[in-house]
From TrEMBL:
InterPro entries: FAD/NAD-bd_sf, GMC_OxRdtase_N, GMC_OxRtase_C, P2Ox-like. This is GMC family oxidoreductase. Belongs to the GMC oxidoreductase family. GO terms for molecular function: flavin adenine dinucleotide binding; oxidoreductase activity, acting on CH-OH group of donors. The keyword DNA-binding does not apply. Its cofactor is FAD.
Length: 500
């Protein structure tokens, strides 16, 4: 049994970033990661291996409530899901922190405004070496610090698409990206979106904050460490031990502070399967652990012109937020539009397996590939549950009217830009489209497991810092918001727990 000052469970965006924020504090910190480092193999740049053969998919199944098992698209490696992410590091819009009416209902206010988090957004952009530009997007909130690097350049077909959208009176803007494009392409001429990062081209949780954290000799990483459960003190006020399995060995560690950063699904599952006097898991006097699960409503959209080839390699450099705060006619919000990484025939074949390969090659070679993303609203009955060690997911989708509206208006826009064929297809539950909300923060202990510093109301030495704390999903990629809050919480821990 060992007794570090702090144990961080998980090395994804939340865990790795809070470790970086605590580096140099003098605290003895142990990071427990259930996965291993991503191996360097040819599969990493092989679209067939990734998307058709499912080489990297986890060897586990979850179950739909009252339904069938399914293989989720979550990944267990050092760096977590960020090893495969699109490296989009965008801020929530200022309006996302306030109460906002959507077609599907009300998106609640955060316990603090955008201005509270803004300094840590700027720090997170520096830590993740974000490439971006200010001035083109009318929804962009105030930045106290400019992006550290210029944006990743558009390829010719994408520059043309940017111009076409501008000609419609829209405001395409450069995606803020954690990508060193020269380093990425040096290792292979492929997109990075959904491709695993085995080098330094993509700044993910491992190559960014975790690498920075491990410079501190007081911080160490243990891999292959699967957390079984947390143990609470007899009076229920504190977590006294973490029980985890490493290979065939059961281990126990007894830290002063526990930071749970296993991801929105698995953090909730760890709390729910941990023994408690009331029998409903830990940090759960509110009965909200596992509830309010959100996962962006999203679709892929292919704008195809059979007369023009799209020879882009990586493609993913543009976003469009003209419909983010309204439908463009003064109505309710729709969502965000951004490019996908360039789809090839293998990727398309994996999703439309009825089509012959020559047809998917042709479609992919003449398409510009877009990602439409709309807010999913919190619902207590949309939830993560456990059955023994198994995970049960009951996802009640909401606000689908926004996705239908965004699909309609973007189909019209792309046709107006000269693409006669526009195809779209929603993503399903196998795709982890920014899972969040399962251990949300708030000001009322009766309605939220965590306070605004991500500390458990029930156990004063427990923090939850991953997508689970998000009160709302907004309609943009959440990685930078998770990282910014992780840095904010790290500073709070330094002041309140480590200053004496």
């Amino acid at each position: 049994m060992t007794s570090p000052d702090i144990v961080i469970i998980g090395s994804g965006i939340g865990g790795a970033t809070i470790a970086a924020g605590l580096a140099g504090s003098g605290a003895n910190i142990l990071i427990l990661e259930r996965g291993e480092p991503l191996p360097v193999t040819p599969h990493a740049r092989d679209s067939r291996a990734i998307f058709v053969d499912g080489h990297y998919r986890p060897k586990e199944f979850w179950r739909e409530a009252g339904g069938q098992p399914f293989n989720p698209g979550n990944y267990y490696y050092v760096g977590g899901n960020s090893k495969f992410y699109g490296a989009v590091l965008i801020r929530y819009r200022r309006e996302d922190f306030a109460e906002l009416e959507h077609f599907g209902g009300l998106s609640p206010a955060w316990p603090f405004p955008y201005e509270e988090l803004e300094p840590w957004y700027s720090r997170a952009e520096q830590l993740f070496r974000v490439r971006g530009a200010l001035g083109d997007d009318p929804t962009e909130p105030f930045h106290s610090t400019p992006y550290p690097f210029d944006p990743v350049p558009d390829e010719p077909a994408i520059a043309r698409a940017r111009s076409e959208l501008q000609d419609l009176g829209l405001h395409p803007a450069s995606l803020p990206l954690g990508v060193d494009i020269d380093a990425w392409l040096k290792d292979g001429k492929t997109p990075w979106d959904a491709f695993p990062n085995t080098g330094e081209g993509k700044v993910d949780a491992q190559s960014g904050p975790l690498t920075a954290a491990l410079v501190d000799k007081n911080i160490r990483l243990e891999t292959g460490a699967y957390v079984e459960h947390l143990e609470v003190s007899p009076d229920g006020s504190a977590i006294v031990a973490i029980h985890y399995r490493q290979g065939n060995e059961l281990k126990v560690v007894t830290p002063r502070l526990v930071i749970l950063s296993a991801g929105a699904i698995n953090s909730a599952a760890i709390l729910l399967r941990s023994p408690s006097p009331a029998g409903k898991g830990l940090a759960n006097s509110s009965d909200h652990v596992g509830r309010n699960f959100m996962n962006h409503n999203s679709s892929a959209m292919l704008a195809i012109d059979p007369r023009r080839r799209n020879d882009s390699v990586y493609q993913k450099t543009l976003m469009l937020n003209d419909y983010y705060l309204s439908d463009g006619k003064g109505g309710r919000p729709l969502g965000n539009v951004q490019l996908l990484g360039k789809i090839d025939g293998n990727i398309l074949k994996a999703n439309v397996n009825w089509a012959p390969k020559f047809a998917t090659d042709f479609m992919a070679g003449h398409a510009i590939d877009w990602y439409l993303m709309c807010e999913d609203l919190p619902d207590p009955e949309s939830r993560v549950m456990v059955d023994g060690k198994g995970i049960v997911l009951q996802w009640h989708r909401s606000n689908m009217e926004a996705l239908a509206g965004l699909t309609k208006v973007m189909r019209e826009n792309f046709r107006a830009c000269g693409y006669p064929i526009v195809l779209s297809r929603p993503f399903d539950k196998r795709t982890p489209s920014h899972q969040c909300g399962t251990v949300r923060m708030g000001s009322d202990p009766a309605a939220a497991p965590l306070d605004p510093w991500c500390r458990s109301f029930d156990h004063q030495n427990l923090f939850v810092v991953d997508g689970g704390f998000l009160p709302t999903s907004a309609a943009v990629n959440p990685a930078l918001t998770i990282a910014a809050q992780a840095l904010r919480v790290a500073d709070h821990i330094r002041k309140t727990e480590l200053s004496s």
